[in-house]
Amino acid sequence: MKEITGINHVGLRVRDMQVSRTFYEQLGFEFIVGPVGPEPVAIIEHPSGVNFNLILNAAADAPQGNVLMEEPVKYPGYTHIALEVTDGQAVAARVRDMGITITEEVRFEGAYFFFIRDPDNNVIEFHQPA
C-alpha cells in the first residue's frame, strides 16, 4: 500500500512502568504521557521520532524469558526492533558504560550491529549499516 508512510509506534508489554521508563530514558527516550487508556499505556519517544508504547499490563508472575527468542520451538511473531545508528562502536561503548549487557555483536559485510535486552527481555538491536 502506497499510503503507508512509516512506523507510528512499537508496543512493548512491560511489568513495571518506572523500571522500563528509567531504562529507556538512559537510551535517550523521553516520557510523553501515561498511563492512559484502557490497557493502560505509557508513551515514550526518542528525539529521532521512534515512539514506543509501554503496555503496562504484563503479569508480575509471567516467565522472565522471551518466548520468541529463547525457546527451542520457534514461534511466529516480532522478535526485535532494530534502531539505526551512525556510530555503532560509540553506542556500544555508551551502552556498556550504562551497565547494560550486550547479548550479541555482529560484523557482517561492513555493517555492525549488536543486541541488548530491556528489563522485560524485549530485544533491541542497534544497527549501523555498511
TrEMBL record:
Ranges where the VOC domain occurs: 6-129
Keyword field: Metal-binding
GO MF, any single term: metal ion binding
Keyword presence, RNA-binding: no
SUPFAM superfamilies assigned: Glyoxalase/Bleomycin resistance protein/Dihydroxybiphenyl dioxygenase (SSF54593)
Coiled-coil regions listed in the entry: none
InterPro entries, sorted: Glyas_Bleomycin-R_OHBP_Dase, Glyas_Fos-R_dOase_dom, Glyoxalase_1_CS, MMCE/EMCE_epimerase, VOC_core
UniProt cross-references to Gene3D superfamilies, sorted A to Z: 2,3-Dihydroxybiphenyl 1,2-Dioxygenase, domain 1
Presence of the UniProt keyword Metal-binding in the record: yes
An example Gene Ontology biological process: L-methylmalonyl-CoA metabolic process
PANTHER family linked: METHYLMALONYL-COA EPIMERASE, METHYLMALONYL-COA EPIMERASE, MITOCHONDRIAL
The protein, known as: VOC family protein
The species this protein was found in: Halioglobus japonicus
